[in-house]
Prior knowledge:
Strand order of the largest sheet: 9-15-14-12-10-11
Domain Choline/carnitine acyltransferase: 174-331, 333-689
Oligomer: single chain
Organism: Electrophorus electricus (Electric eel)
Domain Carnitine O-palmitoyltransferase N-terminal: 1-47
Transmembrane segments: 50-74
Subcellular location: Membrane
Amino acid sequence: MAEAHQAVAFQFTITREGIDLQLSHEALRQVYLSGLRSWKKRVVRLKNNVITGVYPASPSSWLFVVIAILATMYTRSDPSMGLIAKIQEHLPASDSLSVQCQTVVSAVLFSTLLWLSLIFTMKLCLKQLLSYHHWMFEQHGNLSNTTKVWVMLVRIFSGRQPQLYSYQGSLPNLPVPTIKDTIKRYLESVRPLMSDSEFKRMTTLAKEFEDSLGSRLQWYLKLKALWASNYVSDWWEEYIYLRGRGPIMVNSNYYGMDFLYVTPTPIQAARAGNTLHAILMYRRKLNKEEIKPSRIPGTFIPLCAAQCERIFNTTRIPGDETGNTYTHTHTHTHTQLNKRSLDCIEKAAFFVSLDEEEQGMMGDDPEASLDRYAKSLLHGKCYDRWFDKSFSVVLYKNGKTGLNAEHSWADAPIVSHMWEYVLATDSFRLGYNEEGHCKGDVNPSLPCPQRLTWDISVECQERVRRSLAVACALADDIDFHVFPFRDFGKGNIKKIRMSPDAFIQAALQLAYYRERGIFCLTYEASMTRLFREGRTETVRSCTSESCAFIKALEHGKPADVCRRLFRTASEKHQLLYRLAMTGAGIDRHLFCLYVVSQYLGVESPFLKKVLSEPWRLSTSQTPFQQAELFDFVNHPDFIICGGGFGPVADDGYGVSYAIVGEKLMCFHISSKHSCPQTDSHRFGTQLRKALLDLLQLMSGDQPEESRSEQNHGPKPQSKKEL
């Protein structure tokens, strides 16, 4: 989406009599309206900054404090204990004011200082309250008295009707774990993956690091944590994303899909119109901060919204050693042709690709069509997506849509939140007429699109061809398999009293073990947005407990033994996930220690070994955040199936999954054709079987009535039924 310039406001010609100036009234009117809109935005921004700055209080509370102080003084009481009199003594130009006016001005100043002090105290109290995370480790429905009091206090200090960024100043900073705890958890995580000799050597390296270099590196991290809002996020963005020298296509970017079963209109132009309209509606709500703050599902605990600031008008700028993400808030004038055209794209709100092919779940082989759909969204033809933009919207010939998102500026939940709003608004609010066209009348005053022109030298064209060849080879090597799993869903898993995420992670471990005969280091993405500027943390899903369960299951141990081990593994997974969310994860701490060691120019065999370990199973759940926007009762087919990403390791799998409603789960599996040990479809088959086997195992642990309900659930469907 290129925001082209319409800059002709007047025309002039030079004659013998002088300059003949011909003003365009319509152009001047547009200039006036543009300036008016700009000032309105500034006023709205100023208003939002004030409201956010004083939250959890409100600007009107200032008037209440002033009136209360003046009313108290009217009763001949001094609530300031002499401070108002002190302020009155030091008022400038006091000679020009009457005694009564001096008293009122002094009282207003005192009231303002008191009001600001109260706001600061409330923010500080709320920050301390939000630093309490023990509630997350307590059993559901069995809260301690401390947590009950905490809930009451948080509700009191949280204020009412918060805006998007209202909680930013009250979120706690990400804590730095102790070296001892991190090393202990790390060794525990790699124990099932190492032989006795390997683990003994790693334990020795860890002990040497803890006793020598570790404390020195830790001191620098603690210093940064005191100074910076987040001791991880800026280094994570720079060294994990921006300093990467490989192609971001496939290796970093990710995609999001359209509705699984429904295409609201088969007309590409109409779908493009509504989709772009919905995106710009979201952008307006974002600029006005009218979007409600995200919270932990089912709670009132707020999450950091800092990543929302860079959804639009953001692009990744390549550099020799490191790239940059730059959010454009204004435009500049440039005299070079390529620079002007490039600026139009880089400063655009987002990018739009109108594809000439059809995609989606269709044809005689719907699963194969989903695989092609995923590959198209992830890399396209390698030259028809602007991978450096914050996100690119892709619209296909048959009306299907999707997006490709760059990863450095934000994580998937931020893009997913916007995409849910866009799809819901497109279908349920804007809608289409009976012919499939957009509703409403055409606006004839809209400017026509302008073609961007380029002057590409022969040398540059040759470099482009070489880069395209590299990109095409990478894209062709990606093996994708996407499938909706409809045999059962979250509802059945909850009936066996187990976490759906822990259940799926166990199924992934079981599928990998059955395929490869070994366990592997597994990455599950968690989030740290309970903290200011928090992003992600790693949950190491392959644990000693999960390995013990899978070995027992595969070696034919009694069902009751396997069920007990499964529940133990599930509880361990939930504990690790909660530790990651509350700042007690392993990998971000070790990563930052490694960065400090590089700045200091010192080598750590322990850290070098840790950061060189490959993630052969990289997993992530696509969250469904705004169920209230969708009506699954009256419109059950309007189901979003999430998105996916490429494999992290050349010999591994990338697995993304979305839990949709109570009866459906969607899986996106990626790997590389060039690796003989991996096959996305084969792994998908193993995953299906693992899910069914685990539910069958745990159903035997339920009362007869619950088993009867599960047995009468939806039957597996054939490809023809799909």
